[in-house]
Amino acid sequence: MGETLKLRAWHRAISWPEGLAQGHGHDNVLRMNQTDAARPRLPDPTSSPELFDGLLTRRTIAFLIDLVAMGTLVIGFTLLGLVAGFLTFGLAWLGLFIVVPASIVFYYAVTLGSARRATIGMQLMDLVLTPARGQPLDGWMALIHAGVFWLTAWISLPLSLLFTLFTPRRQMLHDLVTGTLMVRRSPMVRHWQAQKLRATQAF
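Predicted structure:
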């Protein structure tokens, strides 16, 4: 509980380093704009490379970890449904048809849709999802981000990955569509802690 409150406070009070955007919102990490012309202080890999260090590799490993976690959920819910089917004379077995999509939605809802704005894999890989436009990144937007990812991955995952080679901030196709940005979490936290310490010492 304390960790969540600290994170929510960080979402509201975080101050970005030189070259990074700063904004206000409810429980969103940032309010940023997609274009440099509209907001030149959008995170820049040149001035803040630590935010994008090994980003594609980290995202790939995070996704593999998430697949294992979602697979575990699918197996768990399937076993639960099988047992419940015997207790409900087979009625619960009807729900087995939606176990896979329900498990995926549930996983993203309690991880990416939470105040941490990161799945289990993203947390282990030190990643966090932030908005790249002027709208707040709420739980629904996080779920939409995940939904668009699976849609683009189903259509052409290689094409979506190809976008990271031509976008300066290593954004994939679903990042551009939903107006989001994936960055390293720890550099953000370290800078915020340093800013808080300097503000405290000033008083």
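Summary: The two ends are 29 Å apart (CA to CA).
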